[in-house]
Amino acid sequence: MAKLDHRLVDVLGDRTAKVLYDAFAIKTVGDLLHHYPRRYMVRGELSDIAELKEGDEVTILAEVFASTTRQIRGRKGSILEVIVTDGSDKLSLTFFNQAWREKELKVGAQGLFAGKVGLFNKKKQLAHPDYQMIADGSDVDNAVDKFAGKYLPVYSATSKLPSWKITQCMEMAIASLDEVEDYLPDEVRNAHNFPTLQQALVQLHTPADLDHADAARERLTFDEAFLLQLMLVLRKAQLRKLDSVSRKTKSGGILEAFDAALPFELTGGQKNITAEIENDLAQSHPMHRLLQGEVGSGKTIVALRAMLAVVDSGGQAALLAPTEVLAAQHLRTFEKLLGPLAHGGMLDAPTTATQVALITGSQNAAARKSALSLAASGEAGIIIGTHALLGEKIEFSDLGLIVVDEQHRFGVEQRDALKEKAVKPPHLLVMTATPIPRTVAMTVFGDLDVSTLRELPLGRSPITTHVISVLEKPAFLDRAWARISEEVAQGYQAYVVAPRISASENENSDIDFLFGEESKDISSVEELAPRLAGEALAGLRVADLHGRQSAEVKDATMRAFAAGEIDVLVSTTVIEVGVDVANATVMVVMDADRFGVSQLHQLRGRVGRGTSPGLCLLVTNSPPDSPARARLDAVAETLDGFELSRIDLEQRREGDVLGASQSGTRSHLRLLRVLRDEELIERARADAEGIISASPDLSSYPGLAQEIAQLAKDASTDYLDKG
Question: Residue 302, Cβ neighbours under 10 Å: how many?
């Protein structure tokens, strides 16, 4: 008898085990049984061959009329064609590279055959049908009762390993299966009326009916959610045991001076979250908090106040940004907000002042040397940087807080590399401007405390969004350029966003189409900027910005745009997050269907950041009834980032959300869907918290402890480590 961890080769033999491993990385009996059916094909009542239609799922009782095997032309392999008849007509059955079946399918033999009717050379056929031969003298009626009405699982398959072959492997594995120990506590299983683990695995692959299959699938889906939540609850408890430096706020320091000089009042949401963060920083264990919020909700101020609180305690704060443009934007924002408080060490600076340093990969040697010195000596209380902050030569005097902006752009190892530069575990604040649905936050960031900013600062103007279809109304694009000119004439500025930097060598000019000539290529910054400057926006000050430019060029361009010296900035998505120019009121996004829903929401958040209304125009060549157009219409219809994030999530693969695709490994989450299974995830979280409350180290649940330990070894759970 086989256990779940037994090698598959011992059950199925070398050849079959190798094919399963090559196709799906399946190594053990448990791996195989966790290769779940995608759906079920139900054998129905017996059909007459004469009445069959293409696409029908059928079951027939027929006799073998003829059987031949022939070689496939031009390549290796053979085709076995079996002709069967039920008296009303004849039907072809085809099997590829299975000549051995000819011994079973002898002329005159009677059998039951099930499959989907297809057409080949205008002849009806069943390709690789499931069948059961009826031995001479057997009760035909009894055989029909057993065969017809059976639920056949349909699996993800390959050409070398078709679904019917996987079904055979499953049946062999189940037949050899020893008693399976159930790690789910009895109290949890009984509370939800779940089948045992063994019952669930067997019923999912060989269901008596669809109700049994549904019950099995619900149990196994719950298991995925429960184990995930249990690991997150455990990790959260472990984080609270770490010893960190308490960073209590103090009076008379830089934070108090900053608040006194702030020219506006914080929103209610900002005040509440600030209080949560200050309480976290005062603890002797490290803060691990996620700060999410709507575009323009004021996350930067909240993060800066946390950093100043740490500076007051004698520590330093590091802000990790994903791009040099965003890092430079943060530097400008902090220097503007802090004023003299960022001039630490200078004659005119207040005694409470500090310095802000910037470290990026492409800055010149002198600037880098100066920034490194400021960080190492502690003269810079705030250090802003890109991945360059993770370098071996970067040292801090007393790193007390790490702020990670747009956390999803950084891997676990990168965050850990920065943590290791602190003497004691630092406090951690991760930020995202992409709103996250509740169950996604619970599933992906379940070990973090979550703060959400929904309220926009007073005076912030709404953004109007329209879709411009160049297929339906090409003249509207000319109107878009005219609108930019009108906004500039009133003293405002504009963005034009393109999906790529340049056209490849073998492509025609994409701009010809955008200006009314025939071409279907994608817009690029390097072609669009000069064309606009010379034609539609002639006379305006047009500049380009993209990731291939040097840090000096990018910084100079952004400073000029912020100073009002550039009217129109033609850019890639480097301006997607963090860029804050209150005077920009209009944005045109070219080939908007090339961007995701949340990305478009982030992009349009760059306009309407002042007191003047914002306008975002989404230009597309997509047909009006296409999925791409539906995405754009959804963006145009709402400014609710949380609603858009749900739409975005529904259109993405689950692995993208849960991290499997980022880690490049196979996720253990095969059934769980964070939107569809919201209620189940919440139940799983509550159950996980109850189990940890009853047994913090899981000593009372050895089966669960073993399962969690095994899960922790899986590289695909790296995505869980957000702290």
Answer: 27
Main-chain phi, psi angles of 399, to 5 degrees: -75, 115
Can you tell me the distance from the alpha carbon of 588 to that of 616, in angstroms, rounded to the nearest whole number?
6
Model pLDDT for residues 363-385, shown as the tens digit of each residue: 889 999 999 999 999 999 999 99
Confidence (pLDDT) at 667 = 54
Class of domain 254-281+297-432: alpha beta
Select from 1.10.3720.10, 3.40.50.1110, 2.40.50.100, 2.40.50.140 the CATH code of 44-149.
2.40.50.140
The CATH number corresponding to 463-638 among 3.40.50.300, 2.170.150.70, 3.40.30.10, 3.40.470.10 equals: 3.40.50.300
Nearest to 431 by CA among 446, 445, 421: 445
CATH 3.40.50.300 segments of the chain: 254-281+297-432, 463-638
Residue 435: predicted pLDDT? 72
Burial of 512 (0-12, 13-18, 19+ CB in 10 A): middle
Residue 317's nearest CA partner among 347, 338, 298 is 338
> 538 near 500, Cβ under 8 Å?
no
Amino acid identity, position 449: D
- Give span(s): CATH 2.40.50.140, the chain: 44-149
646-674 pLDDT tens trace? 887 776 654 445 544 333 334 567 888 87
The answer to whether the CB of 559 falls within 8 A of the CB of 585 is no
What is the reported pLDDT for 516?
A: 41
pLDDT in tens, 683-701: 999 999 999 999 999 999 9
Listed in sequence order, the residues at least 6 apart from 456 whose beta carbon sits closer than 8 Å to its beta carbon are 267, 294, 296, 297, 298
Evaluate if residue 94 carries a pLDDT over 70: yes
Q: How far apart are CA 624 and CA 454, in angstroms?
A: 32
Give the whole-number percent of the chain exceeding pLDDT 70. 91
Going by C-beta distance under 8 Å and a sequence separation of 6 or more, which residues neighbour residue 231?
A: 708, 711, 712, 717, 720
